[in-house]
Amino acid sequence: MENFLKIIEDKLKKNIKIEKILVLDNSNKHKKHKFFDKDKFHIGLEIESNFLKTKNRIESQRIIMNILKEELKEKIHALEIIIK
Fold it and tell me: N or C, which end of the chain is more exposed by having fewer CB within 10 Å?
């Protein structure tokens, strides 16, 4: 699982100029949710990026989601994005 979080971090760093990133597994917080799937992750991203700050919030999130599109199809159920 930690390996998956590292893959996400590396993939984002490879495609976006990022000053600092924190990738969190928030899956445990969602165990009681109706559509919880133990094989999919609830990921939290805290990203400091001057590049993303030049975009509006929706553009920034679209960029991130496009980079992680395969992971969103297969392994990520929910993605929370905070851009600083």
Answer: N
Q: Retrieve residue 70's tokens.
A: 């395969």
* Residue 38 near residue 1, CB atoms below 8 Å: no
pTM for the model:
0.85
53-68 burial, b at 16+ Cβ within 10 Å, e below that, comes to eeeeeeebbebbeebb
State the alpha helices, DSSP H only, in 16-78. 50-53, 57-67, 69-74
3-state secondary structure of 41: strand
Split at pLDDT 50, 70, 90, the class of 31 is low
CB atoms near residue 75 (< 10 Å): 15
Cross-strand bridge partners of residue 82: 46
